């Protein structure tokens, strides 16, 4: 239920992701509440990307682009703020690993 609540908050707040939390909610509800899982999967706006991920592990090209740009921006802001080098390096390594995963997923 917490993942669903965070996903709903993400609809309103531009910096809060929506679909990842809804993916977690669908996974959790797949056994506990099939009706709520079906409701999330059939949502007109958020259902298609979630179904694409659940069925094929696919991510839209625009979502990939925004994800990579957001991660690069985060590293850039850390550099601009003068964060410690070890922290920037750690952040950059994690972002690179996540970006590599996102980019290599099939596009829907």
Automatic annotation (TrEMBL):
Organism superkingdom: Bacteria
What keywords are annotated for this sequence in UniProt? Membrane, Transmembrane, Transmembrane helix
* Cellular component, GO, one term: plasma membrane
From the record, give the transmembrane residue ranges: 6-29, 63-80, 86-104
Instruction: Cite the InterPro entries for this sequence.
Output: DUF454
Q: Write down a Pfam family by its short name.
A: DUF454
What's the protein name?
Answer: DUF454 domain-containing protein
Organism field:
Paracoccus suum
Top-level taxonomy: Bacteria, Pseudomonadati, Pseudomonadota, Alphaproteobacteria, Rhodobacterales
């Amino acid at each position: 239920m917490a993942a669903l609540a965070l996903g709903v908050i993400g609809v309103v707040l531009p910096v809060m992701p929506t679909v990842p939390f809804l993916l977690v909610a669908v996974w959790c509800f797949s056994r506990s509440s099939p009706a709520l899982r079906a409701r999330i999967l059939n949502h007109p706006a958020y259902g298609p990307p979630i179904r694409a991920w659940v069925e094929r592990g696919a991510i839209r090209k625009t979502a990939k682009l925004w994800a990579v740009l957001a991660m690069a921006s985060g590293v850039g802001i850390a550099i601009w703020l003068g964060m410690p080098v070890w922290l920037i390096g750690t952040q950059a390594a994690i972002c690179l690993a996540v970006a590599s995963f996102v980019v290599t997923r099939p596009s829907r």
